[in-house]
């Protein structure tokens, strides 16, 4: 297959265990971009969490962000194809979150909101490796639920980070009636997005914008939220650090995040 585009998850894929892009991966991306292939980010992160990656890789113009709830054009500095969570359903999530030991995060088109007291306990909520990015990117409010009540922007995604990872199963069960996408991410996160919206639909939407067939795409990831991306693309690739069920769902498996797996797959574009 003559693949034209590669969609890269960030955490656990493009970024190693130190949340850095390895030099061999940088070289591979630049070589592939110079050959005329397209590289995009396809991530659960918000736009404000991608500043460092866009600065380091100006070759990457587009990102599917917030797990498919929006597309961002870094050249034009604009977000489009936005899909928000209905307000009544968002209120149900917040109502439950108030009663639980979770850190709530609200993703908007241009902001990422967390509560000050919960950000101070990031490690407690199993999100310690993300502290440098959170300290730089987050908009911090004193009361996230009061903020949500007055917020008029579209809420693209809600993340609930759990101090006790198994408790997120219980949270999902309690909110099972909501007609939303519910996905596990990292070790403690339960993510909510609008019904039918995921990394796969975001990739298909971007392909329509670029005039590329999804069958001409390679999708690389490591988590449950990457599975729709695998299904949408012509080739789904799991990192060696992915869970076994993610590897089973992929068309192929490469080395892990610390041993060149991402660079290995990026370079496949030159051989296709």
Oligomeric category:
single chain
Estimated helix fraction: 25-40%
Instruction: Please work out how many helical segments DSSP would assign.
Output: 12
Enumerate the strands of the largest sheet in spatial order, edge to edge or round the barrel: 5-4-3-2-1-12-13-14
Query: What is the makeup of the main sheet?
Result: 8 strands, mixed
What Rg do the Cα atoms give? Answer: 18 Å
Helix/strand order, N-terminal first? EHEHEEEHEEHHEHEHEEHEHEHEHH
Compute the number of structural domains: 2
- The level 1 CATH classification of the largest domain is Alpha Beta
Please tell me about this protein's structure.
The chain is an alpha/beta fold. It folds into two domains: 5-82 and 197-271, HAD superfamily/HAD-like (Rossmann fold), CATH 3.40.50; 87-194, Hypothetical Protein, Haloacid Dehalogenase-like Hydrolase, Chain: A, domain 2 (2-Layer Sandwich). Helix content is 33%, strand content 23%. The strands form two sheets. An eight-stranded mixed beta sheet has the order 5-4-3-2-1-12-13-14. The protein has a six-stranded mixed beta sheet with strand order 8-7-6-9-11-10. α10 links the parallel β13 and β14 (252-253). The chain is globular, with a radius of gyration of 18 Å.
